[in-house]
Predict the structure of histidine kinase.
Amino acid sequence: MRRTYAEATMPSPSFTGISPGAASTAHESLPAAARRQAGSLARALTTPSYPATPLLAGASRPWRRKVPYAVAMILTAILVPVTAQLLTNDYGVSGGLATLLGLAQATPLLLAVTRPLQAWWIVFLADVTTALVVLGTSDLQHRVWPWQPPAIIGYLFLLLALALREPRRTLVAVWLVTGGSGLALGMAFQTKSDGSNVLLFVLSGVVLLVGGALRERGDVQRRLAEQETISEAERAHRTLLEERARIARELHDVVAHHMSVITVQADSAPYRIGGLPPEAEQEFGTIAATARESLAEMRRLLGVLRSEETRGERTPQPGLRQVPQLVEATVRAGIPTELSLGDEVADLGALPQAVDLSAYRIVQEALANVVRHAPGAATRVAVSAAEDGSGLTLLIVNGPPAEGPATPLETSGTGHGLVGMVERVRLVGGSLDTGPLPDGGFRVAARLPLVDLEEKGS
């Protein structure tokens, strides 16, 4: 098929950013738009919400979840006999038919707890049928028509259940059908009613509006709670990643020191060891070049891990030797702190730098937590080593907080409390035990191995 030049050069809806649906309704005529909206409302009346969750099913207390069932049973028990008696005495309907109409108008309230839209269809048809049945009543002009008082009461409770469950479009459709049916009955039979159709139309609009507002408010609160839960989980995950990145930046200095030692030893080997063959000198040169290249790659890695706000640290990394100074700073901050260093710790000699740094940071985080959460609490710090030199044990115990406030401990390098301790212990393959004490204090116990796990296995 040939296309004209104008058709060929006309931009498509997808190219212009306009969806096909919007393009098809942009120039829609008023009657077509009315038909489309009417069809949408009709589909809403025949499409109940899924799943059929009972009203107040999300309530925290069990008795609240049973309230809709109790209200439905009480209304049914009251409205069925009242409706049957009213239709029999005031409208002259036979007892059997009056009871049947009363059951059709009231018993669907039990179904409304889980399926209010289906219950509405039954009640609506029963109310219309009742209005048609009482048309033959003598002196109808002085009676309530087309909706009787028991029917209005049951209908309003049904609309409340409907508003708490169905979307806004369905509520609008139900309200329009309610008003339209009353208007159609009044115009078709030309009876002098007392305006119960207008009363029901107004009251149903109010009930649907209030119920729909309550449902939407509950939906918004539920979504906010879900978002807060997601945000809290994301915040915890971000804290963990930040702590790991901070630990990696600190370990950069440890690894860089070892790589620098390797580079210096490899470069100076031909001068320190005489009579090396050319192949050995070349091998040492290759080792030194590889070590220098590794150092350069580690500097690039550190640049990736360092955030925009983080500046390069030029001070040496602390260790167990700086723990006494840390305890003194804690005492100056108003925390009575005792330090116990076992004699076996001094006999250990030089510790692995990763373990030495992790031990200091764990003590630092524990003391910072005491200042934040238990100001003025008496604290004891104990550092000991295993007899065989295989591990280092840290114990920080504080009592309940004192009455008077304490000055916060300002130290550089503090991380994220228990999260940082867990990550540092995991880094060196140790174990951590934390928890509250019966008297209101807190205990932190960490064990850091001094022998690598691979060496243990060998």
Remarks:
- Confidence is low (pLDDT under 50) at residues 1-20, 404-415, 453-458.
- The beta strands are 337-341, 379-385, 391-398, 431-436, 442-449.
